Amino acid sequence: MASCTLDEASPLKLTPQLCDLHPSDEGTEELMQVQLTRFMCGSLVVGFTSNHLIADGKATGTFLLACGQATCGLTDYPVPIHDRAVVKPHDPFSIEFDHLGKEYMEKRLVKEVPWEEMVSQVRVEKTQFSPDVLAKLKAPATVRCPSGRDYSTFESLIFHLWQKVTQAHGMGEEETSQLCILINVRTHVVPPIAHGYFGNMVLWVFPRATVRELLSQPLDRVAEVVHAAIAQVNDRYARSFVDFDVGVERDGRWSELVATGDLDSTVCCPNLEANSRLRIPFEENGFWEWGA
Question: Is the pTM of this model over 0.70?
Answer without folding.
Answer: yes
